[in-house]
Amino acid sequence: MHARWIPAAGPARGLAVAQLVNSLGDGAYYVCSALYFSQVVGLPAARIGLGLTIAWGVGAVAGVPLGQLADRVGPRRTAVALAVATSLSVAAFLLVRSFPSFLLVACAYATAQCGLAAARQPLLAGLVDRDGRTGVLAHLQSALNAGLALGAAVGGVALHIGTAGAYLTALALDAAAFAGCALLLARLPEPARSPAAVPRRGADPTVLRDRPYALVTLLNMVMLLRMPLISLAVPLWIAERTAAPGWAVSALLVLNTGAVMLFQVRTASVVRDLPSAVRTVRSGGVLMLASCAAFAVTALDAPLWVLFAVLLVAAGLQVWGEMRQSAGAWQISFDLAPAGRQGQYQGLFGAGVPVARMLGPLLLTALIVSWGVPGWLLLGALFLGAGLAMGPAVRWAERSRPATPEAAPSTSEPEPGTTTPEPVRTGATGPEPAPAGPAPAGVTPSGRPSTVR
Q1: DSSP letter at 10?
Q2: Are 140 and 452 in contact (CB under 8 A)?
């Protein structure tokens, strides 16, 4: 179990521990933030939704330039600075007492979060060899879900207490967690960069002119609409369109989180190159179509035990598809990004997460709650279409790539006080080898990134 959540000693373990620490704080934040903003700050629900929508829109736009900054000045330095900025922005939520200040702090928070996600990816790319990246990302996703689960339990205690002080404590925990994350990231070495690969100051981000990669990003964005599915759309569907009890929602959330913690690394172990990544994403689309069809069936009259069994099957298919789509998308996003441009390319690819946070709730509630069974089938068709289209899009992107091999990961001389673990090699910290044939991820049940933050 330990091997599934935390990789062996080295840079990958440092990244995983940093992920675990900040996700623990985020788990408490996700559970308590909405009630804090409504009950303590006194903001109407519509204002909270509007503010967060604007904030994640700003974050999505900021991801590419902040990723380019990581390419230019170094991903570790950028990631540390953005982790500190995230900590300060969460702490600033404690002082918010009006909508304008809430909007300002929310924009700072979303910008720092999206930039941190963009900077972490080239940091991983510089410290982990190409063949081991998807396996390490799977470990990070398992650590993410483990931290979120523990943090959500802390947030549940704050909800039970229900006082302003309890909510403030939960948010302060998230701020402290990101400060701890910054300290852990600062202990990692800064990856060495070739001077020829460093973008010129003021140069336009080349990713904005890369149409094949933009298409791949768009298809992945469509598949990321699954992120608000378990946390928002399915609970509303169960409450308004089925006879299932309310506790079924909790059971499905536990299934989703637990499956990712236990099986993401094994799911990612079959992804080694672009062809296997494309096959995995395609199968993820098929599984999510099957999941949507199973959820649609729960609208029919049936005994309670049958209804609950179908819900479990639907949720199981959904999380299986989620894990396969995540694993394939990680490999694709790294392999199609030119050397020295990982930050800006990951900034664009990661924009799917804030866009899903912005548009996903509105689109999914319209499709599923308003349209019912036809909406489920249409959503499944979208997942399937995006998964099938990924192959041709990746081949187009491959043909447009320059024939420049990516340099092996290396690290520059560390600053005083930093550690210098060896770069991760394939097989050293990656997933456990599969017995024979494919082995049976993690965004995640709350609109959380399927790309690791």
Answers
A1: T
A2: yes
